[in-house]
Amino acid sequence: MKRQLILEDGSVFVGEGFGGSNYQMGEIVFNTGMSGYQEVISDLSYCAQIVLMTYPMIGNYGINRDDFESIEPAIFGLVVSEYCEYPNNWRSDESIDTFLASNDIPGLAGIDTRKLTKLIRKEGTMKAIMADMDVDVDATVAMLKAAPYPTGQVAQVSTQKAFQVPNRGRRVVLIDYGAKQGIVRELSSRGCDLKIMPYTSTVQEVMNLKPDGIMLSNGPGDPRELTQAIENIRALIGQIPIFGICLGHQLIALASGAKIDKLKFGHRGANQPVMNLLTGKVEITSQNHSFSVNEESLANTDLEVTHRNLNDKSVEGLACPEKNLFSVQYHPEAAPGPEDANYLFDTFMRVMDAQGGNK
Ligand SMILES: NC(=O)CC[C@H](N)C(=O)O
């Protein structure tokens, strides 16, 4: 069955449809990972985005039980050059086609993904929607142009109720803006007793749990929308050790008085080089973000830059050691790529322990 992808600038890409058919307008973005498509599909930070995979074949090792980053994927669509109908791997349970179909997420295959990537690199990310072949393209382009970017994604993906992942170690509150399972896995494997809380949790609700540390998760959308969360974080900074990842990092920056800008087409993939400015070491990192910290605006804050992206020199890490506060823009928990950045979870343990954390 033929299907098309229509972009805000009037471009149309016709290919073969697979997966589901719940067409929703989203931001078209590209990811350069050679593997890790299951983690991408199920990463809640992609809520309201249609993801183009630049690697030419996707789905060859199927979908398995172990690699999900969330229970219910929130991605609005997947665009690939070729998808593999018959995956071959001992862990594979099903194909991406059947997985996307059972979650009603539309897929599009057989388009020139390199051409589309170049277009996004040139024009920046834009609004897009998949559609059946009989849809009125001009009317769809007009609709895309007129529509605002999706908002309110964190409210859609954050847990409604607090819940526990018990353990015997340090007590950590994980504020869930759309947290990846990888963060839960890394904290649990270090013995942390986790309380996973909705993004609407108040300062009092967090403090009542007497946590040793607070983890601010990744999450979808524009961090500047989350005004109440930013205020809460401002009140928590300095009281308890805080570690932020991706959206959590951006919220720490906003709570500290810095500004956030939107990148032209973001960083998404598993091979982004980042320099740790404290050690001079380079880490190969997994990334998925559209927004980034405005470096000049850090002059008004007590945050120092600890990590920098070596491709575009953007800010990748921040810290205020006196306040036991640190954060990174990339994903130290990520499983699809190298694990160079995993040490940051050990740093978090050390910071909590130095404050007398409950080991
Ligand atoms: N993975 C994330 O947490 C992404 C953060 C934010 N939504 C961005 O796109 O920049």
Automatic annotation (TrEMBL):
Pathway: Amino-acid biosynthesis; L-arginine biosynthesis; carbamoyl phosphate from bicarbonate: step 1/1; Pyrimidine metabolism; UMP biosynthesis via de novo pathway; (S)-dihydroorotate from bicarbonate: step 1/3. The gene is carA. Residues 1-131 form the Carbamoyl-phosphate synthase small subunit N-terminal domain. Composed of two chains; the small (or glutamine) chain promotes the hydrolysis of glutamine to ammonia, which is used by the large (or ammonia) chain to synthesize carbamoyl phosphate. Tetramer of heterodimers (alpha,beta)4. It catalyses: L-glutamine + H2O = L-glutamate + NH4(+); hydrogencarbonate + L-glutamine + 2 ATP + H2O = carbamoyl phosphate + L-glutamate + 2 ADP + phosphate + 2 H(+). L-glutamine binds at S45, G219, G221, L247, Q250, N288, F291. Belongs to the CarA family. GO terms for molecular function: ATP binding; carbamoyl-phosphate synthase (glutamine-hydrolyzing) activity; glutaminase activity. Its EC number is 6.3.5.5. Residues 1-170 are annotated as: CPSase. The active site is at C246 (nucleophile), H331, E333. It is an enzyme of class 6 (ligase). This is Carbamoyl phosphate synthase small chain. Small subunit of the glutamine-dependent carbamoyl phosphate synthetase (CPSase). CPSase catalyzes the formation of carbamoyl phosphate from the ammonia moiety of glutamine, carbonate, and phosphate donated by ATP, constituting the first step of 2 biosynthetic pathways, one leading to arginine and/or urea and the other to pyrimidine nucleotides. The small subunit (glutamine amidotransferase) binds and cleaves glutamine to supply the large subunit with the substrate ammonia. Keywords: Amino-acid biosynthesis, Arginine biosynthesis, ATP-binding, Glutamine amidotransferase, Ligase, Nucleotide-binding, Pyrimidine biosynthesis. InterPro entries: Anth_synth/Amidotransfase (IPR050472), CarbamoylP_synth_ssu (IPR006274), CarbamoylP_synth_ssu_N (IPR002474), CarbP_synth_ssu_N_sf (IPR036480), Class_I_gatase-like (IPR029062), CPSase_GATase1 (IPR035686), GATASE (IPR017926). One of its GO terms (biological process) is 'de novo' pyrimidine nucleobase biosynthetic process. It comes from Breznakia blatticola.
